[in-house]
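Encode chain A's predicted structure.
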Amino acid sequence: MKKITDDIVKAFDNCLNALSLHEMSRRTGIGIYTLRKFATRQSNSIREETWDKIYPYLKPYLIGTDEPDKPELPRRVGPTARRHAELVDLLSDQKILLDTFDVLDDGDRKDVFAKLQKIVTGDVRAYELKSLTEDENRLLGLFDAVPADQQEAFLLNVVELATLEVRKQRNDFF
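Encoded structure for chain A:
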């Protein structure tokens, strides 16, 4: 049994700021109620097999851990809204498009919409997802209207724009 210490509770707090309780439960297979008990210290200890499932997520937030190295899972990045339940059914290309669009500055976003308008003819219905902005809903609607044989090239173009923007931001930061 692993005793729940102040460090573990703090690690839970920090981890749950980056990863929702629901998402941690889904990834570890441990119930939300059980995880909440650990995070709020309503339980004094964690069984070893349960700790083995939780540890990869808490490790980046534990200070001075003397635990043996275990493989780390990547930290979840991106807006919290991307974890919204209504986005689960989106295709991976749609999710990539949303994430890259999120990185772009206003000028590049206008360029993306202009390029889409050149490709797509006729009226296009925007998505109506509450967890997305009006522009993001419009973007998905237009992207769906792009002929299938042109979608990949368009997406790669947007990813390249986003990559250049991230590099620019990184250079400005450092």
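The first helix runs from residue 6 to 18.
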